[in-house]
Recover the amino acids of this structure.
């Protein structure tokens, strides 16, 4: 169970990983060692998956976000293994979900432009047989966050 110190540490790390453990400890009223041990435990418990730098896609020339809905007639482990391996091999696919409801899989793809998406699309449809592939192009990003809400814990 997470206490208030753990929640505060997680909130600070989600906002920015630039602060040192000593700075975080000082701000929340813990010793540096106690704060470091808590962070290590949160990592060991799998609560902290990874610490990364978040990049600005547009600054890198990746100005198009595409959400791809996929339907399939195949629902067996062998097909899923082949499909998942093929999708994971496409670096442009930044998120990949198996869904409930009308669609089977949802992909989030980040590319330069429509021609770049067409290149990725051709790779996508060559991975394994698909029943239906539908693409939606994001017009505007209104909200995007990597921060998990912690207030309800």
């Amino acid at each position: 169970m997470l206490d208030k110190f753990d929640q505060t540490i997680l909130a600070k790390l989600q906002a920015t990983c630039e602060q040192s453990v000593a700075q975080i400890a000082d701000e929340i009223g813990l010793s540096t060692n106690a704060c470091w041990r808590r962070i290590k435990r949160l990592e060991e418990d799998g609560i902290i998956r990874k610490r990364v730098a978040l990049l600005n896609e547009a600054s890198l020339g990746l100005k198009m976000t595409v959400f791809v809905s996929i339907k399939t007639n195949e629902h067996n482990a062998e097909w899923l293994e082949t499909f998942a391996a093929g999708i994971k091999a496409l670096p442009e696919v930044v998120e990949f979900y198996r869904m409930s409801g009308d669609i089977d899989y949802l992909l989030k793809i980040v590319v330069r432009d429509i021609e770049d998406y067409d290149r990725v699309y051709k790779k996508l449809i060559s991975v394994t047989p698909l029943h239906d592939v539908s693409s939606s192009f994001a017009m505007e990003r209104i909200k995007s966050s990597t921060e998990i809400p912690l207030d309800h814990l």
Remarks:
- The chain has five helices and four strands.
- The chain has two domains: 4-44, 58-137.
- The mean pLDDT is 96.
